[in-house]
Amino acid sequence: MIVTKIKTLDTIKLSKMTSKEFYSILCSFKKSDLAVLLSWEEKFDVTVDFNWKNVLEFKLKTLKNNKVKQCNFKTIHRILPYRYNLCKWKVVSEGMCIFCLKTESFVYVLIECPTVSLFWKRIIKYVQTYFNKKLLLNEKLLIMGTEFNYPNAANINTVLIYAQYAIYKTYMLNYFQGKTYSSYAIWNTFKNEILLDNISDISNTLKTFIP
Length: 211
Ligand SMILES: [Zn+2]
Known about the structure:
Bound molecules: zinc ion
Shape: globular
Oligomer: single chain
Number of domains: 1
Strand content: under 5%
Radius of gyration: 17 Å
């Protein structure tokens, strides 16, 4: 099973994964991971015929940055090495957030922890300012993104994806290198990654946005 394979790969190796290896993961996804998608459908109470094609293509194919795509894949599978997972995999003994000491979970680490919550306030303000949409932040938005027929959907979904990647990257930089984990640090990671990947509409507006 692909999940087992992913779980055993460490972060360093994943960051060096070739596009060929990544492609094989994509192919495996189609075959073996319907259960994951079904579990989200059930959780979000969407119709069973929800069309995942747009979502998956956007998250795992369209974007150019492989690390971001891997982060998307692992987010959908809830297998990013956050502490709640490290605890589940018996790598660490405590599954609590070390920044606020509350019990960590998928939704806690990505949305509810006060540090990320402040970061998301900036993201929401940014999206409202430049893409004219008031986001309702919840798990469904993280996984499924905003409706694809909305005028600025591609930009908004890119922002949502890079925001989740920035949380992950900043968290790992803290875990492995002891770097600061704050809403400001996450925002900086977010901005740097967008600028590095030169995502035009977003890069241009981020340069002038004052959070
Ligand atoms: Zn916390």
